[in-house]
Structures are given as C-alpha cells and as structure tokens.
Hints:
The chain is mainly α. The protein has helices spanning about 5-25, 30-45, 50-95, 110-130, 140-150, 160-165. The radius of gyration is 27 Å and the shape is elongated.
Amino acid sequence: MAKPKSNTRKSNFFEKFANAATKFTGSSIAFIAATAIVVLWAVTGPLFNYSETWQLVINTGTTIITFLMVFLIQKAQNKDGKAIQLKLNELIAAHEKASNRMVDIEDLTEKDLDQLHKFYVTLATLAKKETDIHCSHSIDVAEALNEMKLKSNKHFKHHSNESARSKG
Length: 168
C-alpha cells in the first residue's frame, strides 16, 4: 500500500531537515557559533548585573537546545545503526560459509545475545589454538572442526585440561 503524497512530502522534508541539522550541528561553524553565543552572554553579565533573568536566558536556551539535540542525535544514530546492520547483513548473505543465523540478530533478546557472545568467546579460545591466521569457523562446525584438526595435525598441541576448561 503506497503512502499518500502529503505524508511522503512531510517525511522527505523532515528527513532533509534532520540530515541538514545533523550535518550543521556537527560542524566547526556550529561550535564556533555556540561558543560565540556563550561568550556574548558572559560579556553581557555586567550590563544586566548578573541578574536571575540574565542567568535564566542561558539556562533556558541551553536546556531547549539540549532537549531537541537528544532527539536529533538519536535519529542520526538510528539511521547509522540501521545502515551498518544492513551492510553487515549483506556481507553475511554474500559469504557462502557465513552463518545466516547472524542476519537480523539485533532483534534478539539480551539473554539470547549474551548466549551468542559466550559462543564467540569460546570460538575465540578455539581460534587461539590455530596456527593458521586465515582459518575461520562457522557457528555450526567450530568445535567439530577444531577437534578434527587437533587429532589430524601433529603441530597442534592438544591439552585435554584446556578442552575441559573451555567447555565448562
């Protein structure tokens, strides 16, 4: 179902505005302008006898800008995060030996992600036993491959105590 044109225009306007605002606020010019405003405010302190109103001006201004910037920064991070995830998904999908289970794992629960993290810690431990830095493992065959290599290659040092510790 296609979006109505008015919603698309509003969406495009906001997207363009947010991109431009993000680009500007991260620029040197924006930093210099913000610094100049603070210096100007500080210089005017004696003119206003450092009154509560004088203080309120900077406090209110910075609070409003900070409030709006939180949402702008979050939008930019969401967009960047999504783009990075899509790039990583493409790399996984394009590599024939990569596990497709890794595609879209950002939607898993924290518990599931922790379990995957533990697996990769174990995988890293297994990889440290490798002598060839170009060797890689997939999720499905990592331990079996490592055991097979340990048995078939004499140059690998097989420590049964290490294997027992990494499994426990």
